[in-house]
Amino acid sequence: MTAPGPYCELHAHSHFSLLDGVPAPEQLAERAAELGLRAIALTDHNALYGVVPFCERARARGVRPLIGAELTLEDGAHLTLLAETQAGYRHLSQLVTAAQHNAPKGEARLPWAELPARTAGLIGLTGCRQGPVARRVLAGDEAGARHALGQLCDLFGPRNLYVEVQRSLRRGDGRLSRRLAELAAGFQLKVVATGNVHYLTREEAEVQAVLAAVRERRPLTARTSGRPPWPPNHESFLRGPAAMLALYPDLPEAVTNTLEVAERCTAAPPAGLQVLPAFPTPAGLDAPAYLRRLGLAALPRRYPHHAARARTQLELELRVIEELGLANYFLIVWDIVQFCQRRGILCHGRGSAANSLVAYLLGLTAVDPLAQGLVFERFLSVEHGGTPDIDLDIDAARRERVIQYVYERWGREHAAMACTYVTYRMPSALRDAGFALGLKPELVEALAQQHEHPAAEPAAPSDPAAQQLLALAQRLLGRPRHLGLHNGGMIIAGEPLAGLIPVEPAAMEARTVVQWDKAHLEQAGIVKIDLLGLRMLAAIADTVALVRAARGEVIDLHALDFRERAVYDQICSGQTIGLFQVESGAQASLIPALQPRCFQDLVVEVSLIRPGPLQGNMVKPFIRRRRGLEPVTYPHPALRPALAETLGVIVFQEQVLKIARDLAGFAPGRGELLRRALSGKDAEAAVEAFRLEFLRGAIDRGVDGETARQVWGLIRGFAGYSFSKAHAAAFAVIVYWSAWLRVRFPAEYFCGLLRHAPLGTYPAHVLEAEARRAGVKFRPFDINHSLAKPTVEAGAIRHGLGAVKGIGEATAERLVQVRAGQPFRSLADFVQRAGLERKPVEALVLAGAFDRLGERRQLLWDLAEAFEMTRRAAQPALLAVPEERAALAPFTPERKVALTFAATGLTAGPHLAALRQDAFARAGCLALPQLLRLRPGARVRVGGLVADGLRRPPTAKGTSFIRLETPAGIIDVIIPPAVYAEGRAALRTAFLVVDGELQRAGPPPSVLAKRVDAL
């Protein structure tokens, strides 16, 4: 690293200038330290997206971070602003907010009128070549330049305004900077030199050029009159003090004046829980006291028989919550849950919050942490502090109402969504780089399509142009392209958010978004509340509503005791399609060995089929012990309480805390710090310190050194892979709810699923087929009986018109309203009254919605005449006049099923595989009942419809998985890498024939493929 020199960079862009900067904010800070800069400013365009990681990294490297932004004014001029004080930071954030709200989404324009009230605490630089002064000098408008400089002087005051000069070796730079210096002298202002940095080294200029071409939608090859070439040069890189002094032999003070500006700037981004609003509490109670009252009030109901133990835990948690200043946060989340309950909106807390008794007592989660042996310190402790994580899963169909409630409850100036940064992946990088290079669209699209699915393993191209494109696209990967909206993270603040973090309009109506994402908010210690839409909860809520409407039964899911035998019988049968979390092929393969018979088994089931446990080799040892194939052992008797529930295998994150407590005497909060260190990627020094502490603690408690080292090795290996038991338990609640509803009310349950399909693993037609196997009857699409959504009629499911392609739910609702006065009498009557184009009407005919009004093939023939009759509006009597019609043979039943499926994705009749039953039989495929009678190891040929697509999990070392559906049920197929390579083309077809070896007789049976063919 170079020794600090007499220069600080005051104008630098990161990739958060969105298509106008190359480096990450952290890279700017790193490079500044390498070059010996004492300070560096981050001045992204109209944004403070990257200030949190920038400030953190700069401080870590001994470089002073300066917070700024380059604002675009309403006349298109650029102005560079730096926050000198915290008041200046607040004003800068408000100005960025005003600029973002004064232009279409993705642009920003700051009205001049916003500046006078918000310059206190800010240092103004006159800007780049597009600055209010410089651009007038370049245009030869001397009077205009003096007027603009005077205007800025009046706004900021002469002490807080500096004239910015830049020399990036463009033609006229020297002349421009000297003229700006003369103007500065005339106003008794100081001059500062800046690099207008957009990349770190000259080699990155090529990437900057591509980004600029994408931003301007103008390829690099374009020759446009009056516009600069791409790029002007390669000189907008970060320079050290000596290089900057060499650029200004005639104006050395412009370089050294930057130190003065840097010394003045002390602003920092906001941090911590002080941004939360104060929750309104009853008179005489502060937030901690009110939270305590709510918890105590719920104790008798939740714990009628173990109140003393629960009371002790409650008091412990309340002390920690008060010490961390989180009472307001719990009350705010509680208020949201209360709103959901008042409105009948199903919501359910998950994540590490399920470790908390307070969260359970307030109804934030449905998981009893005492019954599950959960560890509060996994969620909160004084030792690790940090921001709590309470995620609320909400009925996806009604989540927007909850989000809007938060806006209304706290005010739109005080609430906003967290953002996300949509970054380049290979397909988007290829498309943008290809556009910038001016390559043929077909070449670019072909390469992009090859990279859409990483499992496809695209071959390296031989075309030089394609090779250049790939190399350039590689350099774009991971850089942010545009702003996105977090799935559900909301920020709520006591003071207007715009003074803390810039706020801009979201693409969604009636939403705003802050300029920091989840990670940056966590870095700053600012709490967010996750309001996540879960489609399964929407399906469950619809099921409950359908049961109430059809049967008059009111279901209270929260009153279920998780003990009903029939529910576990259903799961153990392997017929789990449509059940939350346990419907996938991987989960189904675990069920025969695990045979879950209680809620605790469901928690384990949910936890095991995760990338972490699979990579950590936890699944096979657990299953072997569960089946009695190997003994249950513990490295030390003290670990039995922590590991008994998982048969001596570490499965849950909470077990790491218990092991550290029981063997080495760690306090639970200290154990959570240990778990976090073990799960981190760059914490070797911290891990080594914990290792020594763990070994000392274990030995001090009488554990021999060899055993202590062995146990350390276990938690060192598994801590990064283990899964949160609290999270698994929260999901297991929904598993049970879904299975309970399927067992008790199958028609209503599958109707609820179909209303929100596709959800989970399978498309709608697979859910339809599973419902039939469960004994549910279906009624076809009918233009006079179907509603917009599927509904239950006399115990059978009637498909909804919204499923027809080209119709959709809104149009379907309108059609239901149109027919409310009078049913449709004929196709012509429908065409006249519905007001639809021909294509969607044709789709309705193909779906079978008019089958009661005529034969399907004949109706398709009559469609043109029906539209012609509608155009004869003056002759309505023609609707009843018979016309000459061709005599057409009706469609066969099989053809009708195929047409319905093409128009809706559903069959409303026999299973799709049943249509090919003869072909499967001729191919020698065994029916599922025959397969179930064979023993493992038998050579078999099976066939069916691909149910869920090809899965190639990274943990499977190249092995692929697919599920085949037959009218009688599911067959799991395991495809080794060699078989996959040989049968790639066949695996993309809908109907497969598989030759292989029966691995498991089921249910469901599984086959190890030796060969795959299309039927």
Strand tally? 21
Strand arrangement in the largest pleated sheet: 7-8-13-10-9-12-11
Strand content: 5-15%
Helical content stands at 40-55%
Measured distance between first and last alpha carbons: 66 Å
Report mean pLDDT, rounded to a whole number. 90
| Structural class based on helices, strands and sheet pairing | alpha/beta
Provide a count of the helices. Answer: 41
Radius of gyration: 33 Å
Low-confidence stretches: 876-882
Summary of the model, kept short:
The protein is α/β, with parallel strands linked by helices and 1015 residues long. It contains 41 helices and 21 strands.
What are the salient characteristics of this protein?
single chain; 1015 residues; alpha/beta; 7-stranded mixed beta sheet; 44% helix; globular
Topology diagram in text:
Layout: H1 25-35, E1 39-45, H2 51-60, E2 64-72, E3 78-83, H3 86-101, E4 122-125, H4 134-138, H5 142-156, E5 161-165, H6 173-186, E6 190-193, H7 205-216, H8 241-247, H9 252-264, H10 287-302, H11 307-323, H12 327-343, E7 347-350, H13 357-361, E8 391-395, H14 399-410, E9 415-423, H15 426-437, H16 441-450, H17 464-476, E10 480-492, E11 503-505, E12 512-517, H18 518-524, E13 529-534, H19 535-551, H20 565-572, H21 585-594, H22 599-608, H23 611-615, H24 619-626, H25 640-643, H26 653-664, H27 668-679, H28 684-700, H29 705-718, H30 725-744, H31 746-755, H32 764-773, E14 777-779, E15 791-793, E16 796-798, H33 808-820, H34 827-834, H35 838-847, H36 856-871, H37 893-904, H38 912-915, H39 917-922, H40 928-932, E17 939-946, E18 960-966, E19 969-975, H41 977-982, E20 991-1000, E21 1006-1014
Parallel strand pairs: 1-2, 4-5, 5-6, 8-13, 9-12, 14-16, 19-21
Antiparallel strand pairs: 2-3, 3-4, 7-8, 9-10, 10-13, 11-12, 15-16, 17-18, 17-20, 18-19, 20-21
